[in-house]
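Onboarding guide, step 5: your first structure request.
Type a short instruction followed by the sequence, for example:

Predict the 3D structure of this protein.
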Amino acid sequence: MIIIGIAGGTGSGKSTVVRKLLQRLPEGEVALMPQDSYYRDSSNIPLEDRQKINFDHPDSIEFELLVRHLHELKKGNTIQQPIYSYLTCTRAAETIPIKPCHVVIVEGILVLNNVPLRKILDLKVFVDADADDRLIRVINRDTMERGRSVATVIERYERTLKPMHLQFIEPTKRFADIIIPQGGENHVAIEILTRYIENCLLAKK
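The system replies with structure tokens like these:
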């Protein structure tokens, strides 16, 4: 099993990179484990307090469970991946069964921030993008998909996203084996990454 971590700031193009990798790799041989699925359950606190959660801080993620699940997959065991709701800031009662497969991709802004998680990764990738480009993508996404106003998005960016990026995300670039500038638009880097994974798969057969 090859475990690949793909990190990078909000709006850097991580999801696009992952999507293009999944399109290129054999169907059924890749499992995706989003970091966002492992946000801590907050059903024990009032709703108004849940809405104040800083989702860009490492403490918001149950890395212990994520790492444990990865170890279980390596042992050949199926795991039950949590389902997290941003609307209620709680985990659903249902889970998603993830079976062991040849490639596991762990994707999220803080994937390279956690030491035990970094140790289990076979390949560490950081998707890099200019701060202005990331802000534009966040504005477009949050206004069109989440119904937020431009003013609200910019206020959140200045109050939370930017300082958390500088403190917890940008410094993890130094741990990356591969840095992909321009995110999902860097077709050469995605092709190189695809070839690397394909070669690893061939070597294991």
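Each response can be followed by summary notes, for example: The chain has a mean pLDDT of 90.
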